[in-house]
Design goal:
The complex is a heterodimer of chains A (472) and B (221). In chain A, 57% of the residues lie in helices and 16% in strands. Chain A contains eleven helices and 13 strands. In chain A, strand 10 and strand 11 (391-398) form a beta hairpin. With 221 residues, chain B is of the alpha/beta class. In chain B, the strands form three sheets. Chain B has a five-stranded parallel beta sheet, with helices on both faces. In chain B, strand 11 (205-208) and strand 12 (212-215) form a beta hairpin. Classes of the chains: A alpha+beta (472), B alpha/beta (221).
Chain lengths: 472, 221
């Protein structure tokens, strides 16, 4: 059952119960008042009848006559004349020793009324669609024998009025409840409309429409709920987008990686198959083995770079104060074997930077290595330091072949190579700058590349410096 | 003799393809970039071009557009194995598509099948006066047909596709008999004996001591 229906039903139910209770109390109050009035009137009439009978009996006694059944019957008949047309009944009974049967001496009652005292002043008796109030009184005439006088007064009109009122009330209640039900349904629909909007929004979000919002405004509880729901949806949307992006990046990365693996794999597979299939000439054999060795080396280099990249992504790097001149010195030593073909110029510096020494060396090594690869024999590769806001900019500058602008944007992508064949000849995997970029990110900076084709390339990054007091 | 152009910038792979196709009796040229490939196509008439897609200079797709009007069949060799890439290649008019990493035997089979399909031979392997039709699986010596069992035929085809190379017994056995491990490797010797007899090739199929068998290269006459 919908909440709106429940709400409407509850409203109608409460209304019905309270209306019925109130109506019932009101109706019965009116009815009892009317009955009391009728009873009072009837009691008066009964008292009058009693008085008249007592008078008659006293007169009979004063005349010295005995009370007989005939007299009572005659009295009853005479009295009945007054009662005609008002649907009232009269009964007289004498409790004589010879009249123990219990049949009344005189009766106009259409039913048999037993001779016994009533617990209250009257009792209600229904007969053939009419309602009567019955009164009984025992008189003590001077003759000694007890005489009972019973009267019944028709009060059907009071009860009929009650029935009519009840019927009228039922119809009224029905009409009122019908109207109330319609109003309640409309009202609860209007009240729960924001809830429906909320439900629809949450359902479509559950089905993947993360941009969906409720669009419900207001200061009440539902309005506030909708607003916090919208905030939650926005947060979810952001997370999902971030997640999708990272999944896509990972997929791209894996695709690029497997693509990168396929070429060496083909060569290894093919040459190994040749070697196992036939006995080739020693020269061919050696050539095949060389190819297998070289391609395996390539895969190994690739996997090492990949591992470095993954480690950088996972591990939290602790940055410590590092003396730049010491780092430069170490880099110079590491680069010595391949730096012979070019002139390496390291800037003089006394700066102390926040960095991880090993990673910084890796970064410098990779960047300088790239610069050397791009340079001709005897060219100059410069490592420069310039102060910037909050840190020092370190640039590696060469006068080599440069990179085309459309390729420059992609060089930090994993596996991207400007010149595929040349990079492979030099043992490149296309991962070097991707690792550098990652190292720069770990240090809270980015690689900035500037290049003019056939003029040279400059790669720079900014490291945070530490005040020299702290060093001491 | 079928001339095949190999366009592949990876030296190792180009060399591998060259070796495998040369053994199977094809004459091959290697070029390592797209522009050289265009020149080579211009100068020579090739029966088939094996084309890498990612090439320096002109890429494979551009070369294909250039080759298509000449009617030269093309097989793409690439690491791009996704369905879209295949469909794109085949749409542009490539005759086949080989995805790295591939096995050389598969490459040779594909080359043969494309040559056969485009009516440029490939179906018939020749050695001396023996002609082997790999499509109809029939063998003719001179003008007379020779009846071979399926295993004998496969063995002959293996030898013909690796001429001048001493093939190891177990690899020969594995390729012809497949995974049937219950077959005795003596069976191989038996089949070689029968081939020699049926084709009268007593000297052409050479037993290489401790290695296996080799079909002699035909002396250039």
């Amino acid at each position: 059952m919908k909440f709106a229906q429940k709400l409407a039903l509850t409203m109608v139910l409460v209304l019905a119960v309270s209306f019925s209770l109130g109506g019932t109390v009101l109706l019965y109050g009116i009815f009892f008042d009317a009955l009391q009035t009728a009873a009072g009137q009837s009691e008066g009439q009964h008292a009058l009848a009693c008085y008249a009978l007592e008078n008659d009996l006293r007169a009979l006694s004063s005349r010295g006559e005995a009370l007989t059944v005939q007299h009572l019957a005659a009295y009853g008949t005479a009295q009945t004349g007054y009662l005609q047309g008002t649907a009232q009944y009269l009964a007289l009974q004498q409790t004589l020793p010879d009249n123990q049967s219990g049949t009344p001496t005189f009766s106009t009652f259409p039913w048999e009324e037993p001779l016994e005292a009533l617990p209250s002043s009257y009792r209600v008796r229904r007969n053939e669609g009419h309602t009567y109030l019955v009164f009984k009184s025992a008189l003590q005439p001077p003759q000694g024998t007890e005489v009972w006088l019973m009267t019944a007064y028709d009060v059907t009109s009071v009860f009929a009025a009650r029935s009519r009122s009840i019927w009228r009330f039922w119809w009224l209640e029905l009409a009122v409840l019908l109207c109330a039900a319609i109003a309640a349904i409309q009202l609860s629909r209007w009240l729960t409309k924001p809830l429906q909007a909320l439900t629809a929004a949450s359902e479509s979000i559950a089905q993947g429409a993360y941009t969906q919002r409720t669009g419900v405004h207001g200061q009440d509880e539902i309005g506030r709920l909708s607003q916090s729901f919208d905030i939650m949806a926005a947060a979810v949307e952001m997370r999902v987008q971030a997640l999708e992006l990272s999944v896509r990046q990972r997929d791209d990365f894996i695709a690029a990686f497997t693509h990168e693996l396929k070429t060496p794999m083909t060569a290894i597979l093919g040459y190994a198959d040749t070697l196992r299939t036939m006995q080739c000439e020693p020269r061919t054999q050696q050539q095949a083995a060389n190819y297998i060795f070289a391609e395996s080396k390539r895969i190994e280099a690739l996997s090492q770079k990949l591992l470095a990249l993954l480690e950088l992504s996972d591990k939290a790097v602790k940055l410590e104060p590092v003396r730049l001149d010491v780092a430069f010195c170490k880099a110079k030593v590491a680069l010595a074997p391949m730096g012979a073909s070019v002139e390496l110029h390291f800037a003089q510096t006394k700066d102390i930077v926040l960095a991880d020494m090993d990673l910084l060396l890796d970064l410098l090594y990779n960047l300088v290595h790239n610069a050397i690869k791009a340079s001709e024999l005897g060219d100059v590769v410069q490592i420069l330091c310039t102060a910037t806001i909050g840190g020092v900019r370190i640039s590696v500058k060469d006068n080599g072949c440069g990179i085309l602008p459309k390729q420059l944007a992609r060089v930090t992508e994993p596996f991207f190579m400007v010149d595929k064949s040349r990079a492979r000849k030099n043992g490149g995997s296309g991962m070097g700058l991707a690792v550098c970029q990652k190292i720069a990110e770990v240090h809270g900076t980015q690689l900035e590349l500037f290049s003019v084709p056939s003029k040279g390339t400059s790669v720079s990054f900014v490291l945070q410096t530490v005040e020299s007091e702290e060093q001491a | 003799m079928n001339r095949i152009l190999i366009v592949e910038d990876e030296g190792a792979i180009a060399q591998l393809i060259f070796m495998s196709l040369a053994r199977a009796g094809y004459l091959c040229d290697i070029v390592q970039d797209g522009l050289d490939a265009a020149d080579a196509i211009e100068k020579n008439d090739y029966e088939l071009v094996l084309l890498d897609i990612m090439l320096p200079g002109l890429d494979g797709y551009e070369l294909l557009e250039y080759l298509h009007p000449m009617g030269t069949p093309v097989i793409f060799i690439t690491a791009k194995g996704s369905l879209q890439d295949r469909v794109k290649g085949l749409h542009l008019g490539a005759d086949d598509y080989i995805v790295k990493p591939f096995e050389v035997t598969e490459l040779v089979a594909r080359v043969e099948s494309v040559l056969r399909r485009t009516g440029r031979g490939g179906a018939v392997l020749c050695a001396w006066d023996v002609q082997v039709n790999t499509e109809a699986r029939t063998v003719q010596k001179g003008a007379h047909p020779v009846a071979l069992t399926p295993r004998e035929f496969d063995l002959l085809a293996q030898l013909l596709r690796n001429r001048g190379a001493a093939l190891y017994r177990d690899v020969l056995f594995e390729r012809v008999w497949g995974g049937e491990r219950d077959a005795d490797s003596r069976t191989l010797d038996l089949h070689v004996q029968r081939l020699r007899k049926k084709l009268n090739w007593h000297h052409h199929i050479v037993t290489v001591y401790k290695v296996g068998y080799m079909l002699e290269q035909e002396e250039a006459s």
